[in-house]
């Protein structure tokens, strides 16, 4: 591709030097100049991506696709160079050749470079596979608990008769033991650990709470989560990424570990705030974490996905950290 571009650069911009002993100096200079321009272009893409202005990814083509692509570029470059060097070609044909070759280069770059919109579906599938399994597992577990609780309620009359009989016989110790067993059944049969008003959010949060408990993390949830004003897919991406970040960071803390989730819904504004304990304060610049690799990984999962969901609903994501408490605050504008 560099060689093909250099053919046109040599013709358009490189002056003939007529240096004796080495006739290829103009071609070499054109190639070097083209390489510098392409390098600056790629660096610009990296800078725009880092500044979160433009998100570009390079895709991998198959070997036959690469062969076809570069043959197309090669012959196109030769044809373009031949047209430009032909003195008898009218100016209109030259202009048309410029446009054709420019469009060819744009097409080639578009094939090689894939914008975020083209990869968002694969990203979404990857982001949803884990949370959706957690929701499914939580639903199955809650359904089993609900079935067990219905059976318990069905047998309540017989249980009360048994308790009355034991009490009349003065067997208080057996009565106490029986009540304790009943309490254990009731506690184990609680249908929902959270009641935010959104079933999917409740199931997902319950699954995350189990992970938190396994790591000695105290997780609390406060407030209501909208049920019909945000798409389920976006809701899962938002909650799972926010809470997963908090879990990963809190796991590393020695001593008291906390995750506080607060949902505030005021008219058309929904604010979801997730606070977690962290090992040390992290430096945040331009809403990006600038610390060690380990700390970046602790809070870095899915930040771009969270921002994408927030921006889709006209909102934003704000990160902050103070006194070893990391806060991720997502604000969304919901339809009435």
Overview of this protein structure:
By secondary structure, this protein is α+β, with helices and mostly antiparallel strands. The chain has eleven helices and nine strands. A five-stranded mixed β-sheet has the order 3-4-5-9-8, with helices on one face. Strands 1-2 form a two-stranded antiparallel ribbon. A hairpin with a 2-residue loop joins strand 4 and strand 5. Helix 1 crosses helix 2 and helix 3 runs antiparallel to helix 4. The longest helix has 39 residues. It starts with a helix and ends with a strand.
Alpha-beta classification: alpha+beta
- Tally the helices: 11
Broad shape: elongated
Main beta sheet: 5 strands, mixed
Average pLDDT across residues?
A: 78
Q: Rg from C-alpha positions?
A: 32 Å
Beta-strand fraction estimate:
5-15%
> Helices and strands, in N-to-C order?
HHEHHEHHHHEHEEEEHHEE
Describe the secondary-structure layout.
Blueprint: H1 2-13, H2 25-50, E1 56-58, H3 63-85, H4 91-112, E2 113-115, H5 116-154, H6 156-168, H7 172-188, H8 199-214, E3 218-222, H9 232-251, E4 258-266, E5 269-277, E6 284-285, E7 288-289, H10 293-300, H11 303-312, E8 316-322, E9 325-333
Parallel strand pairs: 3-4
Antiparallel strand pairs: 1-2, 4-5, 5-9, 6-7, 8-9
Helix pairs in contact: 1-2, 1-3, 3-4, 5-8, 5-9, 8-9, 9-10, 9-11
In short, what is this structure?
This protein has helices spanning 2-13, 25-50, 63-85, 91-112, 116-154, 156-168, 172-188, 199-214, 232-251, 293-300, 303-312, and strands at 56-58, 113-115, 218-222, 258-266, 269-277, 284-285, 288-289, 316-322, 325-333. With 336 residues, it is an alpha+beta fold. β8 (316-322) and β9 form a beta hairpin.
């Amino acid at each position: 591709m560099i060689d093909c571009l250099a053919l046109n650069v040599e013709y358009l911009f490189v002056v003939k030097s007529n240096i004796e002993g080495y006739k290829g100096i103009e071609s070499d200079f054109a190639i070097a100049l083209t390489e510098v321009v392409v390098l600056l272009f790629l660096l610009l893409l990296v800078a725009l991506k880092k500044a979160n202005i433009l998100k570009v990814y390079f895709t991998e083509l198959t070997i036959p696709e690469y062969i076809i692509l570069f043959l197309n570029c090669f012959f196109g470059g030769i044809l373009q160079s031949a047209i430009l060097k032909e003195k008898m070609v009218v100016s209109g044909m030259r202009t048309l050749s410029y446009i054709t070759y420019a469009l060819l280069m744009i097409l080639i770059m578009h094939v090689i470079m894939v914008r975020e919109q083209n990869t968002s579906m694969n990203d979404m599938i990857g982001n949803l596979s884990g949370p959706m399994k957690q929701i499914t597992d939580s639903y199955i577990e809650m359904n089993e608990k609900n079935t067990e609780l219905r059976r318990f309620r069905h047998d309540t009359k017989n249980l009360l008769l048994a308790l009355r009989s034991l009490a009349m016989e003065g067997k208080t110790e057996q009565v106490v033991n029986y009540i304790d067993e009943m309490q254990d059944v009731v506690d184990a049969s609680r249908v929902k650990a959270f009641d935010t008003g959104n079933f999917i959010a409740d199931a997902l949060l319950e699954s995350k709470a189990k992970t938190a408990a396994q790591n000695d993390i105290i997780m609390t949830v406060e407030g209501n989560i909208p049920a019909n004003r945000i798409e389920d897919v976006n809701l899962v991406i938002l909650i799972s990424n926010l809470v997963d970040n908090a879990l990963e960071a809190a796991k590393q803390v020695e001593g008291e570990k906390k995750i506080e989730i607060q949902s505030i819904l005021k008219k058309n504004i929904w604010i979801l705030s997730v606070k977690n304990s962290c090992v040390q304060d992290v430096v945040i610049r331009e809403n990006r974490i600038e610390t060690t690799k380990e700390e970046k990984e602790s809070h870095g999962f899915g930040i771009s996905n969270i921002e994408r969901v927030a921006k889709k609903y006209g909102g934003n994501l704000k990160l902050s950290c103070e006194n070893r408490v990391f806060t991720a605050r997502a604000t969304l504008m919901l339809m009435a």
